[in-house]
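Hypothesis: this fold can be encoded by more than one sequence.
Test: take the structure tokens below, design a sequence, compare later.
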């Protein structure tokens, strides 16, 4: 496990009913840019540059305890063993009644996390924020990678429990699947009640690929796609999440090395601060 911890973390052990940060530095199947394994460490370092108080939410980390369990040691292991390591450690958090907040790493980390959640929860909704649908059945001869992760997740939780936002890139087959199953939704101020009705009181898991943001404001990702969400819209979405029952979260696909300004890492830290405050 790493020694550096996120801003104002209260413990290195799981606190029941509170978020527990777990670094999952997986970077095996990335195909355009690599370096997402550096993200958990970069986010922790960048958290030193932000305040513990969030004026948009009017909440302070000192009033919202959380733990930082450090990073998993995944180097030198096979992809299968890395995914199993993530699943086992998420299960440990859930067994202690914690709320996992996993920091990737590539988006493939969501698959073992969902395997763990499927053992501990009944029906829940997964909100998927991403520029890409990640719904391919296979990619470059692999059925488990960053481009197929949500197709594998759907096989676990069912398509009726998936709601996607921000998707603006994918194959013709992926978009046909999206339209057939009606998983893509819109979000803007005023649509909160519509989304609440769709969630229908079920527990919620959030998987946030940072490339949902427009690369004009967040360039540090593996596969940037023009035309994404503004930071302000993402902030409003996070504020909306304060009204639902969040059981877990992951934040993935930061590539610190492609943004020398460090603005992407700092923004990612700020996003995680907000997520900690609404759990």
């Amino acid at each position: 496990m790493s020694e550096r911890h996120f801003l104002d973390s209260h413990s290195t052990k799981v606190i029941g009913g509170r978020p527990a940060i777990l670094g999952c530095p997986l970077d095996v199947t990335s195909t355009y840019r690599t370096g997402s394994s550096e993200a958990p460490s970069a986010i922790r370092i960048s958290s030193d540059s932000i305040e513990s108080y969030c004026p948009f939410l009017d909440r302070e980390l000192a009033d919202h305890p959380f733990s930082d369990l450090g990073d998993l040691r995944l180097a030198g292991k096979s992809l299968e063993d890395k995914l199993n390591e993530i699943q086992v450690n998420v299960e440990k958090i859930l067994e202690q009644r914690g709320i996992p907040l996993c920091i990737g790493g590539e988006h493939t980390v969501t698959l073992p996390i969902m395997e763990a959640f499927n053992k501990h929860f009944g029906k829940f909704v997964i909100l998927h924020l991403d520029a890409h649908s990640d719904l391919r059945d296979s990619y470059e001869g692999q059925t488990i990678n960053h481009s197929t992760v949500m197709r594998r997740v759907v096989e676990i939780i069912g398509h009726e429990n998936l709601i996607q936002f921000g998707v603006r890139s994918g194959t013709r087959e992926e978009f046909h699947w999206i339209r057939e199953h009606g998983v893509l939704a819109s979000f803007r101020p005023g649509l909160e009640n519509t989304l609440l009705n769709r969630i229908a009181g079920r527990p919620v898991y959030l998987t946030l690929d940072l490339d949902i943001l427009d690369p004009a404001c967040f360039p540090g990702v593996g596969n940037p796609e023009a035309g994404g969400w503004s930071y302000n819209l993402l902030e409003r979405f996070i504020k909306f999440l304060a009204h639902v029952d969040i059981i877990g979260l992951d934040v993935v696909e930061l590539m610190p090395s492609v943004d020398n300004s460090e603005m992407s890492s700092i923004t990612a830290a700020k996003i995680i601060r907000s997520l900690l405050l609404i759990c």
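The two ends are 24 Å apart (CA to CA). The chain has one domain: 19-278.
Hypothesis status: open.
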